[in-house]
Predict the 3D structure of the following.
Amino acid sequence: MNSEISFYGIQGQSVEIDNKDYLLSLLSYIGHQEILTPYEINRFQLSLLELVKRQCRRYNGWDTSSIQADTAILISEGVICNIEQYLKTLSTEKAVEAIKNFTADEIYELGKKEVKQTLYKCGFMYENIMKAPLKTNNENYLLTLKKILPVYFNSYDYTFMPHIKPDIVTYPTAFFAKIEALKAIDFLKAYLRGLLIENRILNMFPSEKIEKLLYSHSNAYKDEIISIFSLVADNAAACAAGDRDIFSLNPEEIESLPENTAEILCNKLNIGEGETKNYLLQYIQSLTKRYENNKNVITVLKEEKKGEIIISLGNQMDDDKFRFMEYLLYKAKNITEKINIIKTGPGNIKDLWDILSSEGICFEEYEMIYGSLSIEEIAALYKYGEGDSEEEGKKRELLTYIKNLSENEQKYILNISESIVFKN
Amino acid sequence: MNRNLLALFSNNAITKKDIDSLMEVNPITRKYGIQISEEHSMEILNYKKGALLSNGRLELVSNDSIVKKLLIEFSSSPYISQDNIIEVMEDLTEAFYYFKNQCEEEMGDDDLIEFMKERFDTVCQGSVELLIQRELEHLIYSIKNKNDFEGASDE
């Protein structure tokens, strides 16, 4: 078997070194160019096979003589990933030398060190991002930053599965499509670098302007998978091109971007030479192409009515929490306990409205419950109740409660309720 | 690439050395009236290769490792004789790899073989069918539910 080993397809056609399949293409290249003898290539491949076998046994605990094929594939991918991490730090000539002079084990260990160092750098970038995260309500941004990445850092396995990527990164950076195919640690490094630079730039803009832009892009922006940086950069570039205040993010329609748009932007944002400037230049280049293809580029800001009171419907309680609150109301010994539950439990107007239908509340208790709420909360309930077609006791009792208030209070409630807008 | 690499794992053709190595169990098994011939060795090793394949597993050590352990362990069973050793070995090898998959690598080879032997000789009274369908299924259930598998069949 030993003399016939050639799983890297040395007889294949490709002589180019492909970054995606680095080790395979490097071995093919070495074979084609006859840089190493078949014996030397064979020796390396055999040591790689032995390393994979040993890693498989380590993974399963030593007391095992076999392994599931799928697991073995994952482990072999992990071994190759670490080996590639080291070889990629070298020039092609040095990488060939390494294959000639080292065993797969030795290169694997050097690669593991390289991965650990990169992971450390990634952790540092993540900490920097978290020092000043963007103030936004976009759930995908928050989820990626606060949950997905920390879990990934904690569970990253550089010994056996260094190539496994975070499960789902729900927030795309501007160049996400370009880095998506990278292997785990390379992906993480490129992703965090992009996120860090984008954050740095986004934090130069007023957060309320960014939120307004996002809202103008879509009412449901909180749940959408969108690149906030792209939206902001598109509008800021159009502002720069149209000689408007870039921080207003409110440009006029333009047909193309002048060549010096990136420079103007960098000047206005006080961005000097370095990776931030390069990133922005690269982005503006891609944006120029979009203008050339006549794509709709800017987001027109929606003007909100003056005096509009926006009440966020936010995240609703899940069924289990809701039922638990109903149970607490049912079990509450007196009206004080019930009021306490109602005032502290529901996180938004919809939950508050729904919990008021609970069987744990008697008709005669509504007056005291409404009495415990602020006049603004009553106005919000009144407005929300208008949209509820069901004729329930809580609605009748609310109208009765309002009718019994003073004339001024009634007017105030009506005025406020007219200005209230519920948004997701 | 990785599939090609892994193909080499299972590229272990049965050699004369493997057959001879398996026959090294004879001094032990002969004490219990069991003699493994060259044909037996070939048959057992071939069957093991098929069992690995059908259960999607790859062997990491020498060709005869598991079957050797099974032969040594089970030859002392009062329910195994020269007449049924090959048939039982085939069923045990298949069961062994099937349950290695099922217990998601939670159990080492030696522990699983020891458990199989103990149950085979006691509550199963030599029935491979009972061993597989009741005892090993109980074991898997217990492992998945994080219970102590000892006494699973006593319930």
Q: What stands out?
A: Chain A has 19 helices and three strands. The first strand of chain A starts at residue 66 and ends at 68.
